[in-house]
Specification:
The protein is an all-alpha fold. It is about 70% helix and about 0% strand. The longest helix is centred in the middle third of the chain and has 29 residues.
Amino acid sequence: MFFAWKDNMAIDGGLIDSDHQELIAIMDGVMILLHNKAPKAAILTMLDGLANFARIHFEREEALQKAAGYPDAPNHKQIHVTLLKDLEDYIREMSNISCSALTPQECKNRMHEAKRFMTRWLIAHILGEDVKLRPHVQKMSPVADSMPNLLQQGV
């Protein structure tokens, strides 16, 4: 396992945490594919799934922030825009190379780069920005309770 949910990442004990856990699981899947030198198409499919789930999650999180009157919502939304752009750029970069075309050391370096990117991309965001939502969870709860669980919908 390359990425795992940790209790210090908890935000609301509900919807946001469930989404974050799924994002982390997808990132772990990407790392497993890289580790196993899976075909580039499989890795790109998993990364596209990460981007799609992230887009939906960010929209949901922003709706919750709006409902709670979260004062930093505009800045947080801009951070989400940047995160999505960074991920799209990373996917483009990954589409140009696969471990099968690299030496073992280059492939190992690629894995370290991927882990660093994904740690910065999501884990640092959760621990640096999303934790600021904790005091607003009660105000977000009524809206969060009306939102479907994405995993149950097969997203």
